[in-house]
Structure formats: C-alpha cells, structure tokens
TrEMBL record:
Residues 122-309 form the DUF5117 domain. This is DUF5117 domain-containing protein. PROSITE patterns: PROKAR_LIPOPROTEIN. Residues 860-872 have a biased composition (Polar residues). It comes from the Bacteria. It comes from Mucilaginibacter conchicola.
Length: 872
C-alpha cells in the first residue's frame, strides 16, 4: 500500500510497535470469541452468547427424509439444502476434523462508510480456520491455533496439545443422519444470520457507528452455494445503528457479506524457513519439537505452491510450467481502458518466476461473464481478484491469505481505489515535470496513466506473492547513475519494485533520461528465485534452508541484493520515497528540479474556464516533496546501518553512519532549509489561491526540521556512538555547533526569526521535558529496533549540553538593531532565561523520552498499504 503511519500518543506507539515487530502484514485478523452462538444485543453495540445454535425446544433426531423431504441438495464440499426458509449442511464423516479456511468479505457496504481496508465491497472482514467436529449428538465448529506446535514424533507433542485447546466457535444439534449414516445434518440458519464475530461486522465499525445488534426482520441468508472444495454463503444483515455515515434518520446500517469456506490441502505444502536477509512476509510459531534447549521461534515465509509439471526437465535447468498456475482476475467493475495495464502489471512477474525455473507461472485475466461462467464470483475464495473500488481514497493495497500451517498463499484480493490515479498524477508531475514535457498538462493521456497503473499493479501483485516493502533497495544505485539515460533505461530507479522508489526526481534537464519509474529489478528476481525455487527429492525444510544459505551468502555485500526492512528509523538507507546512495546529493538535485517546476505551475496546468485548484494542489505538493527531501537527509544524523548476518559472516550487523556524512547532512539543512528558501515564495503563483496560510506552512517545515534533528532518540544514538568510537564520532557538541552556525547567521527575516524561536523552544523541551514517560507493552530493545532509542534525559548528558548551548546563544545575540530585531533578540533572551529557570509548569511539546514522534521516526506498519493521501 501507500501509507506511512504517524502516531500521536504513547498508547498508540506501544500498540503499533508490538504489531510491527510481531506480525505479518498481509492479512487483517479478528480475534474469535470462544463461543459465538445465538446473540442478544448489549449497550455497547457488541453481542453476547446466550444459547447453543439450534437449541431451544429439543426436537430430537429425525429421519433424513422427514426433515428434507423432496428438497434438492446442492452437492459439493457439503451438500446443502433449503427447506421452509431454513438452511441445512449435510456434513460427511470424511470431512469431520478437516481444516478449512474461512474468509468473510463485504459484498456491498453503506455509502460513505469510513473504515480503511474494510469499507468497500470485496474487502476482507476476517479469515479463520474452522474444523467441524462431532461430539455425541452435536457438531462443533472448532478454531485451531497455530501459534505453538511440536512435531507428532516429538516428546513434547502431548504437552503442546494439552495446552493448545481449540476454541469452540459454535455448536449445532444434529438434526438427522443422512441416508447411509455416513454424514450428519445440521441447521445453520441462525448461525449465518447471527452476529457472529468471525462472519459479521468488525468491532471497530460497530463502535464507530454504535451498532446495537441485528434486526432479524431486515436480515436474511441470500444464497448458499456448494462447490467441490468450497462453500459460499451470502448474507444481508441490517444493524440497529446510533450513527450513520450519511443519514441518521434510518437508525440502521445494512451490509452484504460473503463467507467462503475452503478445504485446506490434506497434505500441507512444505514450509520454507524465513531468513531476515531476504524479504518475505511470514508467520511465526513457538516450536517445542526442536532440539534447541529453549522454546524456539520458527518462522515460515508466505508463498504460493509452485511445483514443476516435469521434474526431470526442471532438474536439467529447463524452464517448466507449474502444475497449477497463479491466476488473477480483473474485477468486472474496472474501467475497460485500465484492464490491459493491470493485466500487464501482473504478467510482468513471469520474468521473476523464470529466475526460479518456471515459465507461465502467473497470469492476469479478465473475469468471465455470467454467461461464460455462471459459477464465478469475485468473492469466491478459490479466485484471486483485483477489486476496483469507486472511491476518493488515494490508495491501493495487495493482501494475501495463507495457510497458517505452512505459509502457503491460497488467494488474494488486491484493493484498487479509483482515486489512486490522482496521487499518481500529482507525484509523477512534481517529481519529473522538470525533465518530462509529456506530463506538463492538466490531465495525462490514457497511455501515460496506463503505464503508471501498470507500475502500481506490479508493486501490489508483488505483495500478494509474499514480498514486503524493500526500503533498502534504492540505495544500491549511485545518484549520478540515475542521471544516465542508458542506465535508467535498463534499470529504472531501484533494483526492487517493492521499494518506495517512485519517480526519478534526480535526472536534470539535458540528461536525456526518459525512463522515469521503477520496474521489476535485480533484487526482485533474486527474491523470487530464493522463495520459489523447487528442490527435488524429499529434503526437509532445514535441508532446503542450508542450500538457500549458500545462495544468500554469495549475494552478501552486493547492494543490488540487499533487503532493508520497513518499520525502522535507524538506518538512513531504509527510507520511503528516496533515491540513490547519498540523500544530500539526491535532494540537492531534487530541489533544483522543484525550483524549475514551481514557477510554471499555472502555465503547465492551464485549463480554460477552470479555477486554480490544480495550482493550489501542486504548489502544496511541491512543499510536501521539499519536506520529504529534508527528512531523507535528517535520517543520516545519528543514523546506524543495519545489515543482518549469521555467525558465519564477518562484519558488524550495526554500524554508525560516518562522521563526514552526518556533517554533510547538517550542512545541507543549513544551506537548503535554515537559510530561508525564498524560491518557495512565488508571489505570482500564490496570488491565485493563497489566503494567508502557505508561508506559515513553510515556516512549520523549517521548525519541524529542527525538531527532527534534536529529538532525544537521535541524540541518544549520538552519545552511544561517541562512547564507542570517540573522536571518529559525530557528537552532540558537533551538532549544536553546526546548527547554531546555520540558524543564527544570515539575513534575519521573518522566517529566520521564527526558526530561531523554534530552535530555542525545542531545546527548552529537552531541558524540561518529563523524562519518566514509558511505552507500555514494549521493551527498550523493541523500541530501539524501530528507532525509538530509549534514554533517560534527566540523567543523561543531554541537559548539560542543552544548558551550555542556550547560554552560548544568549551571549551571541547582538544588542541594538532596528525595533523588530531588538524586540526579537530581547524575546530570545527571555525565552532562554525561562528555559534555564522555569517559573511555571512546562507544557510537554516534544512528547518526552525517549524521543519525538516525527516524520522520520514514525512507526510504520506494512500491511501492504502503499499509497496514502500524502505518501505511498
């Protein structure tokens, strides 16, 4: 997807930090209640189990013929019947205790619903594994857990089973035995009509709209269809609602759901063990069946099951088709002109699978019409679909659903929001218009937009193949290589399309660069080879890992094959929206291009008879892009490089960014940010839309840059560097000297005065902030892992250094000057005096230890969320 998540409170940090550290980001799980049966409403909009499904008056077990009569069954996974408005499942004994993946999706939702990732038809509500299990005269739906395991041959197997009891989701009375007593009949009407957590509206939507239970008179089961390996149930449920996204007078919200129940393979796919050096989504289990003298965590990657049709030919090195091709269908609701580009983005991955020895491994197709295939449904869990949402959300995302036993990917529904085109247009314009005359227009051609859609399609499909974001990829290409026409024509902007390496903002006029966006690159081919190569014979997962380790070590040290995780603000190489191996150099080129674009906004977006909305939008995009460049540079200060390794690899896992680069980063800020960026103040363009807010935004960018630089977590790493490396470290003393030289020199205009006040106020926050705050639920090591390096400000060297810095500033302020200058300097002295000798309670503005939550220290969840309103 396209989003980075900025958190505002410590409670949010704790919750999301844990999620970022522990979870795969490809699915949205909803906790199952231990018993979900017939329900009654509760004041908070939730539901409470009150009775066993199908209970009430005990009728006993009837004859099958007496109950079903002449009703015709729909044969498939289970044979299903509808009799007098009731729905029955005939469950064969052979399918009792078999694991089945159950996926519930919205089919239709109320207009205006706001719940990101769960608001449009086709989006997933929940997925869960069920086992239908018979006990005496009842059938239970059990929900197994896969968080702990032990092999059945292990001495620990019995112990693990005893402490890992499957929850009971629902219970059904047996209504009849089938004709040859090889199966039982249960009534599932109340179950599917009920407010069951696993197959109903998610709790967050219930709370948001104050839903207080289902109105049975306005709810029903629409269809029940059975197929050979799956069963599909479509329901319509109307909830009593205290709030509505559009019209509270209805006092109700109606949703349509589809619940797919898909039989999991009887023989699970062989799992592939995860490796932190190669990026894949995955899942973790505590494995008590190993020889390790501890409770060992085992991690498996998520991948499709690809097996060659001809193993002998595959072993000879020939490209071989898989036994089962990966197929994605394009939603029939998709505008026809974009369908070929979406399909092309899917098919582009075939060259990745060729690296793993497969040909024609993946294909995109138009969804069949009802006439071509009356049984096809975009909600059916057997099919992977690119769903098109009529939405003003600027986003797209690529989730997948996997077998929790092994990580086998079973299906995916890519979410494609119509308005992602607006984001693509704005960003492609702002990042390339200086060198790309084709985008100097109010509306792109269909061909130009189609190519951008193809790029996004490839990125999102990559997620559905198991690939997370690789934020370290773009660092592999030298900045000046991205100014080369031949290099970019061959390589694009990064070795991985899974990076957030958007469009080539580095190329300058005259360079002749025309290929300006990412493509499936060297790293992508390598990761698909690593994850999908087939090993013949009966090798164990551990034996396969040993072979893969040899491959991985052979690529170590080559930046083309480097994987840099998302979710940390420690390593300046691992950033979104950046390009090249030197942020200072790249950002200087980028700003040079923004200076060329800004004066031409009105000219290049001219639309006869239209108001200046486009000029305003793109002017704000220029400021936003400038702010991204500042963030890219700032990450170098107090930064550490992270290179995951194993015992048999030499060199450090963590090492500090060298002193010269950190100094260069501050020099960039002094020149490009703390010296007033007058080029951003284009009076002619501003006069078309600005009513007095834009200059304040530019001031805020400058002050926020200061806050980012001197946040406590960054300073903590700098002190750590100094303790370990002495004179070779870029120290806090160096930082303060360099900042002071930039912030308190030069023309003292309104921007510089605002900046100086901001610097002193941020120093004041460090001096007087309450350092006793904590992040509940997260350890110091976990916090440091994502960039919130803990430090006790009160006991650290930060406050003594801040006091010295404030004193130096106070002593350096000149006397005299014009009235405004004199007033400003007097105010600064008073602010410094108040900081050093506070006379009133301090308002915590920097959010305390261990550090500010700022753009470059934001905790980011992947969740395949690639394209938010302001950042992908």
């Amino acid at each position: 997807m396209i989003t980075s998540l900025r958190l505002k409170t410590y409670v949010q940090v704790a919750a999301i930090s844990a999620a970022a550290l522990a979870s795969s980001c490809a699915t949205k799980k909803q906790a199952a209640s231990t018993v979900t049966l017939k329900t009654t409403s509760t004041p908070g909009g939730g539901s409470t189990a009150t009775a066993t499904v199908g209970a009430g008056k005990k009728e006993g077990i009837k004859k099958f013929s007496d109950l079903i009569g002449k009703a015709k069954g729909d044969t498939g996974l289970f044979t299903t019947y509808k009799v007098d408005g009731k729905y029955y499942f005939e469950i064969p004994d052979s399918l009792l205790n078999r694991e089945m993946l159950v996926v519930t999706r919205f089919v239709k939702t109320p207009v205006g619903l706001k719940s990101f990732g769960q608001q449009y038809g086709g989006e997933e509500v929940n997925d869960q594994v069920w086992k239908w299990q018979r006990h005496d005269k009842q059938v239970f739906v059990r929900v197994p857990s896969y968080s702990v395991r032990a092999d059945s041959t292990s001495d620990m197997y019995a112990s693990v089973k005893n402490s890992n009891l499957d929850a009971v989701l629902a219970a059904f009375d047996i209504k009849a035995y089938n004709k040859d007593t090889t199966g039982v009949l249960v009534d599932v009407t109340d179950f599917y009509n009920g407010d069951i957590a696993a197959i109903s509206v998610p709790d967050n939507i219930k709370k948001q709209y104050k839903l207080s239970g289902i109105d049975a008179s306005r709810s029903y089961i629409d269809t029940v269809r059975s197929f050979p390996i799956n069963l599909e149930v479509r329901t319509l449920k109307t909830f009593r609602a205290g709030e509505s996204p559009t019209d509270n007078s209805n006092a109700a919200l109606t949703f349509e759901f589809n619940t797919s129940m898909l039989l999991l393979p009887k023989t699970p796919m062989k799992a592939r063990l995860n490796d932190s050096r190669v990026g894949f989504f995955g899942q973790r289990q505590v494995d008590y069946g190993t020889d390790a003298q501890k409770a060992e965590v085992t991690a498996y990657i998520h991948r499709w099951r690809l097996e060659p049709k001809d193993e002998a030919a595959y072993a000879r090195g020939e490209l071989v088709e898989p036994k089962k091709q990966i197929v994605y269908y394009i939603d029939p609701a998709t505008p026809k002109k974009w369908v070929p580009y979406l399909i092309a983005g899917i098919n582009d991955w075939n060259k990745g699978f060729e690296a793993a020895g497969f040909k024609n491994a993946i294909v995109g197709k138009e969804a069949p019409s009802a006439k071509e295939d009356p049984e096809f449904s975009t909600e059916d869990a057997r099919y992977s679909v690119v769903r098109y949402f009529a939405s003003d959300v600027q986003n797209a995302y690529g989730p997948h659903i996997s077998d929790p036993r092994t990580g086998e990917i079973l299906e995916s529904h890519v979410g494609w929001y119509h308005n992602v085109m607006s984001l693509l247009r704005n960003w492609f314009f702002i990042q390339t218009a200086a060198v790309n005359p084709k985008v100097r227009m109010a509306k792109f051609t269909d061909e130009q937009m189609g190519e951008l859609i193809r790029f996004v399609s490839s990125h999102e499909i990559g997620h559905t193949l198991g690939l997370p974001h690789n934020f370290g990829s773009s660092y592999a290409y030298p900045v000046d290589s991205l100014r080369s026409k031949t290099f970019t024509a061959k390589h694009g902007t990064a070795p991985s399309i899974m990076d957030y390496a958007r469009f080539n903002y580095i190329a300058q006029p005259g360079d002749g660069v025309t290929h300006l966006y990412p493509q499936i690159g060297e790293y992508d081919l390598w990761s698909i080879k690593w994850g999908y190569s087939y090993f013949p014979g009966n090798k164990t997962a551990q034996q396969e890992k040993e072979a893969l380790d040899v491959w991985t070590k052979a690529k170590a040290g080559n930046p083309l094959y480097y994987y840099g995780r998302q979710g940390t603000s420690i390593d300046p190489r691992l950033q979104n929206e950046d390009l090249g191996d030197n942020a200072m150099k790249a950002s200087t080129y980028g700003i040079a291009n923004l200076k060329r674009i800004l004066p031409n906004l009105e000219k290049w977006t001219y639309q006869k008879g239209e108001e200046f909305d486009d000029v305003e939008t793109l002017y704000n995009e220029v400021i936003g892009q400038y702010n991204r460049y500042i963030g890219h540079v700032t990450m170098n200060i107090g930064g550490m490089n992270e290179n995951f390794k194993t015992y048999d690899q030499k060199g450090p896992v963590y090492g500090f960014v060298n002193k010269a680069l950190q100094h260069d980063a501050v020099a960039f800020l002094n020149q490009q940010v703390f010296t007033t960026p007058t080029w951003l103040i284009n009076r002619e363009e501003l006069s078309k839309f600005d009513n007095g807010t834009t200059l304040s935004r530019i001031k805020a960018v400058q002050v926020n840059a200061v806050a980012n630089v001197i946040n406590a977590s960054r300073l903590a790493r700098m002190y750590d560097n100094q303790s370990k490396n002495g004179a070779s470290a870029y120290t806090v003393a160096n930082l303060f000297d360099d900042l002071r030289a930039g912030i308190f020199k030069g023309k003292l205009d309104e921007f510089k005065r605002n900046l100086q006040r901001g610097y002193i106020d941020n120093l004041k926050n460090l001096l007087n902030d309450d350092a006793s705050r904590s992040f509940p639920g997260a350890t110091p090591a976990q916090l440091a892992n994502i960039g919130f390096t803990p430090i006790n400000i009160a006991l650290s060297d930060i406050r003594p250094m801040v006091r010295v810095e404030l004193s130096k500033i106070s002593k350096s302020l000149p006397a005299g000057g014009d009235a405004l200058t004199a007033a400003h300097n007097t105010d600064l002295r008073l602010r410094i005096k108040e900081a050093l000798n506070p006379t009133r309670p301090v308002v915590n503005m920097s959010m305390g230890a261990p550090g500010r939550l700022t753009d470059d220290t934001a905790v980011k969840q992947d969740n395949n969320n690639c394209w938010p309103k302001t950042t992908w």
